[in-house]
Design brief:
The complex is a heterodimer.
Chain A: H1 2-7, H2 21-65, E1 71-78, E2 81-85, E3 94-99, E4 105-115, E5 120-128, E6 133-141, H3 151-154, H4 156-160, E7 165-166, E8 172-174, E9 184-186, H5 192-209, H6 225-232
Parallel strand pairs in A: 8-9
Antiparallel strand pairs in A: 1-2, 1-3, 3-4, 4-5, 5-6, 6-7
Chain B: H1 7-13, H2 28-33, H3 38-61, H4 71-93, H5 95-101, H6 112-122, H7 127-156, E1 159-160, E2 163-164, H8 179-207, H9 210-220
Antiparallel strand pairs in B: 1-2
Classes of the chains: A alpha+beta, B mainly alpha.
Chain lengths: ~230, ~220
């Protein structure tokens, strides 16, 4: 180590001497370098696992909000049409299409986000274009108050209100127990703001995506990755 | 060098007599922020344990080579490196818990208890004592975090480690898992701790040879 040579002169007896500025700089630089190497090492070691975790979480969420789905692929909205993408990345202009085991199209899983009570709330919901029903809702990311706002994904009564919810007009969150219309959602007591945010995100995403979705019957066919591999070889 | 004090003593003092939370009142930010459930408190305690022990080990091993003019920055570099290691490891191994703890894992860098131990102890003592001191201090911190987290979760949710304790009739005190509940619980725990310490002191005075013990306790603190 470089510093060892330099510091060997600073024997306890010489400790009162002021160290030269080069020594200060070198010790900071060496520490910074070692720290950098360690941080990069741990980043590279965990990168694959972290990426895998995130992908698995997203995949599980899609399977949760869309019933009976066994295959899925990503659709990207470019040049006014939906195209199938195979890349790993995910952005706001992408949704998922779900297919059953015979590769028949079932529905879409659409994501949306909006500022929540504390941080951005990120939601995924399943949507059947055949009857305009929402089939389920999952919260991908949120930092709502533990014990109150986090009920938007922990309170199963609330989550199940988004199963088979007809989406003919905007949905609305109302005080718990006062739901009378089919487009109304019973909000969570003590977490009205978080409940309203969920509803708002779904309304916004619905408005954004409805005109973009392809005509019924002309949904993009499932492009199995296996098929692709065969073609390439 | 603290050769006259046993290593065991260095470790045990962090648990009770110099408990970083109840006596030194350090590290309040994670203390109040992440103790809304027992499991969060325990994971935060473990993360702090790892960072404090490894940092104290390094600081005391390299203390001859750390120029005192730049020591604070070097301590922070060492602490920040280990915090990053913890952050990525948790993200890879326990993503659900990492999500709950959120910003408070990176904030371990700024936990004054950790920097305080480097400055006050590890930089002045041998490796063995520094590690013992770090183990004791972080164990004391963990005990404090856990007692706060357990009280808040039991009263605020009616559960411990996610297991329901009461019948469905139990009405959770929601305030306990919100920030005010943290302050309330911490205040009451501090009150209890001080009351108990005072009682113990009175008892020792009454029982026996009195002033010596009282002075002895003071000296080490």
């Amino acid at each position: 180590m470089n510093t060892a040579n330099i510091t060997s002169s600073t024997h306890p007896s010489a400790q009162n001497q002021e160290p030269g500025s080069s020594r200060l700089v070198i010790s900071m630089a060496v520490a910074g370098f070692i720290s950098g190497v360690i941080i990069i090492a741990i980043y590279m070691l965990t990168f694959d696992t972290i990426k895998e975790n995130k992908a698995r979480e997203l995949r599980e969420a899609v399977f949760r909000v869309l019933p009976d789905v066994s295959h899925m692929q990503k659709l990207h909205f470019v040049d006014n049409k939906m195209v199938v993408v195979k890349s790993d990345g995910m952005d706001d202009e992408m949704i998922f299409a779900g297919y059953d085991k015979d590769a028949k199209f079932i529905g879409y899983a659409i994501q949306g986000k909006a500022p929540g009570f504390q941080d951005t709330v990120h939601i995924l919901y399943g949507y059947l274009s055949s009857n305009s029903n929402i089939t389920g809702m999952a919260v991908l990311e949120s930092r709502e108050t533990p014990g109150l706002g986090d009920k938007i994904f922990k309170d199963m009564d609330f989550v199940s209100e988004f199963i088979n919810l007809p989406m003919h007009k905007d949905i609305k969150a109302v005080k718990k127990g006062t739901k009378t219309q089919e487009n109304e959602i019973d909000a969570i007591t003590g977490a009205t703001i978080s409940s309203k945010i969920v509803v708002k995100i779904i309304n916004q995403a619905f408005k954004k995506w409805s005109p973009r979705l392809p005509q019924q019957g002309s949904e993009p066919a499932l492009e199995l990755s296996e098929v692709k591999v065969v073609k390439e070889s | 060098m603290a050769t006259d004090v046993s290593a065991y003593e260095e470790m045990i003092k962090g648990l009770w007599r110099d408990n970083p939370v109840f006596v030194q009142v350090l590290g309040m930010c994670p203390m109040l922020a992440v103790t809304n459930s027992a499991i969060n408190a325990v994971v935060m305690g473990l993360a702090t344990f790892f960072v404090l022990v490894t940092s104290s080990f390094l600081v005391s091993s390299f203390k001859q080579w750390i120029p005192k003019q730049v020591r604070i920055s070097l301590y922070v570099i060492i602490i920040a490196t280990f915090v990053t290691v913890v952050d990525y490891s948790l993200l890879a191994m326990l993503p659900a818990i990492h999500k709950e703890l959120g910003a408070f894992i990176p904030l371990i860098v700024a936990n004054c208890m950790i920097l305080g131990r480097q400055e006050a102890f590890a930089s002045k003592h041998g490796v063995k004592y520094a590690v013992m001191d770090a183990v004791g201090m972080s164990a004391g911190f963990m005990i404090a975090l856990f007692s706060l987290g357990a009280v808040r979760e039991i009263l605020g949710v009616g559960a411990l480690f996610g297991v329901d304790l009461f019948s469905a009739n139990f009405e959770p005190w929601v305030i306990m898992i919100l920030p005010p509940g943290g302050f309330l619980t911490l205040g009451l725990l501090l009150l209890f701790f001080n009351w108990f310490t005072e009682r113990r002191r009175q008892f020792l005075i009454k029982v026996a040879d009195v002033d010596k013990i009282a002075v002895g306790v003071k000296d080490n603190g």
